[in-house]
Amino acid sequence: MQNEYISLLKKNIKLNINISELLTSIYSINLPKAIGICNKLGFNPNKQLKTIKDIDFILKILSNFLKLVEKNDKIKSKKLHNIETIAYLNNLKNTKNLKYYRLKNGLPVHGQRTHSNGQIAKLKLHFNE
């Protein structure tokens, strides 16, 4: 064969592997997820890539699907981070912590000076209101 490798999401992949193995070579996709993706797209997960006639069409479908999956994972991780941050701030608020007061008022939290430093941050805080 002249092309023994294909490119999917900036990775070179051999043609003599199964579709499920192809998907598991991508970060954050394990075997059960790969089999589920194949079933949703209507592919046999045990079929080898070199036996498929229209590889370009399949790779376009897979790359679009995987980009969608990556976007969803990033969105979920950002939402989870925001939820954890809100829970942390609520905990500080409920315990009437000094750190919450300083965060709320835009003052430095980790012991920095306030007399001569942080004037720009204070100005930005008041202009945003």
UniProtKB/TrEMBL annotation:
Keyword set includes Ribonucleoprotein: yes
GO MF term set: RNA binding; structural constituent of ribosome
Gene Ontology CC entries for this record: ribonucleoprotein complex; ribosome
GO terms for biological process, alphabetical: translation
Highest rank taxon of the organism: Eukaryota
Annotated family: Belongs to the universal ribosomal protein uS13 family.
Protein name per its UniProtKB record: Ribosomal protein S13
Key words, A-Z: Mitochondrion, Ribonucleoprotein, Ribosomal protein
